[in-house]
Amino acid sequence: MNISILGSTGSIGTQALEVVDELKGIKDISVLAITGSSNITLLEQQARKYKPLVAVAADESGYTDLKARLADTSVKVLAGEEGLCRAAAIEGSDMLLSSIVGFAGLVPTMKAIEAGKDIALANKETLVTAGALFTDAIKEHGVRLLPVDSEHSAIFQSMQGGTRNEVRKILLTASGGPFFGKTKDELANVKKEQALKHPNWSMGAKITIDSATLMNKGLEVLEAKWLFDTEIDDIEVVVHRESIIHSMVEFCDRSIIAQMSLPSMKHPIQYAFTYPDRFPAKGQSVDFAALAKMTFYKPDEDTFRCLALAKKAGREGGIMPTVLNAANEVAVSKFLKDEISFLGIAEYVESVMSKYKNKSNPTLSDIIETDALVRKECM
Ligand code: NAD
Ligand code: MG
Fold first, then answer.
1. Is 136 found in the same domain as 42?
2. Using CA atoms, how far apart are residues 291 and 174, in angstroms rounded to an integer?
């Protein structure tokens, strides 16, 4: 199989390359294109090791640097969104792993779908903002959409226990993040260093902050809505502190099927690469006796308002999820620069959402324009 990876230098991208290494001799995967935005040294190392046809740096300075570093190789170096689109749709590739963070992944991922590539999707923001267009394009071009987000991979695997019309509801699990059980007063002064410490997962900064605010779970509700063609209210979020059950599906006979494993993103990445087959994986098995117990709670949507805001945007539909996502991306970057407080993230998103009139059935241009407008107005 031949793949290209958008965001190969990130948390998902580097783990995907480890999976490629681990599958060698069992299922050989060639990496035809890699991309990164900041870590050019790592991108160079990956280019030398995996010998892709193309390596893309997100900006001009990265491009100049990477081109000089790879001058003695046959790797073609490209830049910017145009480069990302070419990498995503590169000839000969069977699958795109879409693992850039944020809205920047949308256009290149759509290009890959149009070029007939299967999509292994980590970049949830693309599905949240352009769910209808994205899923229509998947159908129109007859390609597969394989979830990489661990919860959605779990739902996808659990769904195999019945037919789609036998599903009663989806139980989407959440770790609760580093601030589980805290009150608004206790959260008033938390700093980014505390928010960046996730109890169970090591991830990029943006998704780690989203996990602390529960916006990540909100985005995942919207992601599940599009992936599994479900109503928002048929998706129940359950806080499960141990992150062993990665999500569950309840069928009409009230039987519940769950997917479990120790928390490692390599499981869902490997399954997306090998689906519908399963291959041996490295790592440990769950030791239930050592685990002793698993706990479950209702999420506190009054304190962690981002979850409620995302559901609201999902129910309203139209352009509102794009507004929510763009406002959240801006708010998270402001929080990471100490410009707003932790609780300020939800306030910020809510105030931006209240300023926008909804628009139904947005086109891709509407979505791109609205995303840009929200970012501009937030400057
Ligand atoms: P990360 O920050 O570690 O990596 C992001 C990658 O995208 C890097 O290669 C970076 O160079 C690239 N990138 C960032 N901004 C870019 C831009 N504007 N243009 C081009 N390239 C850009 O992030 P991550 O944790 O790997 O997450 C990637 C995506 O996967 C996110 O959408 C996240 O929600 C999703 N996801 C991540 C995890 C996880 O465990 N890390 C789990 C589930 C879903
Ligand atoms: Mg997830």
1. yes
2. 18
Helix (H, G, I), strand (E, B) or coil at 179: coil
DSSP annotation of 35 reads: E
The CA distance from 205 to 192, in Å, is 10
What is each CA distance from 227 to 27, 48, 130, in whole angstroms?
26, 36, 12
Whole-prediction pTM: 0.97
The C-alpha atoms of residue 136 and residue 129 are separated, in whole angstroms, by 14
113, 131, 148: which is the final residue of a domain?
A: 148
Q: Are residues 32 and 99 in the same domain?
A: yes
Q: What's the gap in Å between 69 CA and the centre of ligand 2?
A: 35
Ligand 1 pocket check: which of 207, 211, 227 to mutate, most ligand atoms within 8 Å of Cβ? Answer: 207
Euclidean distance between CA atoms 76 and 282, whole angstroms: 33
Q: Ligand 1 within 6 A of 100 CB?
A: yes
User: What is the domain range of residue 107?
Assistant: 2-148
Q: Ligand 1 centre from 101 Cα, in Å? A: 3
pLDDT of the chain, 379 residues: tens digit per residue = 999 999 999 999 999 999 999 999 999 999 999 999 989 999 999 999 999 999 999 999 999 999 999 999 999 999 999 999 999 999 999 999 999 999 999 999 999 999 999 999 999 999 999 999 999 999 999 999 999 999 999 999 999 999 999 999 999 999 999 999 999 999 999 999 999 998 888 889 999 999 999 999 999 999 999 999 999 999 999 999 999 999 999 999 999 999 999 999 999 999 999 999 999 998 999 999 999 999 999 999 999 999 999 999 999 999 999 999 999 999 999 999 999 999 999 999 999 999 999 999 999 999 999 999 999 987 6
**Structural domains of the chain, count:** 2
What sign for the dihedral angle of Cα 284, 218, 152, 320? Answer: negative
**Final residue of a domain: which of 148, 166, 199?**
148
